[in-house]
Amino acid sequence: MRAKTAEDRQLLELIEPVAESLGLDVVRVRLMGGTQRRRLQIMAERAADHDISVEECARLSRAVSEVFDAADPIAGEYLLEVSSPGIDRPLTRLTDFDLFEGHEARLETDRLVEGRRRFRGLIAGTEDANVLIDLEGEDETALIPFDWLADAKLVLTDALMKRGAELRAQRGEPSDDGLPAEQDPND
């Protein structure tokens, strides 16, 4: 799921070693648009803490540009966009389902699973090469083969936003209200 098309997979093969040399993991690669001006979107994060700074995005962008200037893997003009996966990020690796256990997600499979392709519920981790999800309104935990997933994304919830705020506080970054993360606005 990190790369959807054959062209995306070829680009990922070029991008991944560059990212790894910078201590980054590629979360997803997508080449979007028609034949005119296309957009190459690269989502990346630090392997150590699943975060990325603006400066690291810029470094990865410059490094990928150098490789692409030499290899010329995309015909015509394209815009290179390097970003973090964001708070309501795509879940593209099996390890993402362990990392975000307990958070709400939407999954879509490439084939029918018990008569449906779309699922929404709380991530319950992984078992072997399967994703576990506690579905809304159901008592049983669903087991979905990771290889059957066509798309998976976290749902933006208060719990997910709180997790993001806690991570920012650990890094000493300001909160969304502009106050230092540890400061209460009522103080």
TrEMBL record:
CDD domains: YlxS_C (cd01734). Residues 14-88 form the Ribosome maturation factor RimP N-terminal domain. It comes from the Bacteria. Keywords: Cytoplasm, Ribosome biogenesis. Residues 167-187 are annotated as: Disordered. InterPro entries: Ribosome_maturation_RimP, RimP_C, RimP_C_sf, RimP_N, RimP_N_sf. Residues 91-157 form the Ribosome maturation factor RimP C-terminal domain. Its main location: cytoplasm. Signal peptide: none annotated. Required for maturation of 30S ribosomal subunits. This is Ribosome maturation factor RimP. The gene is rimP.
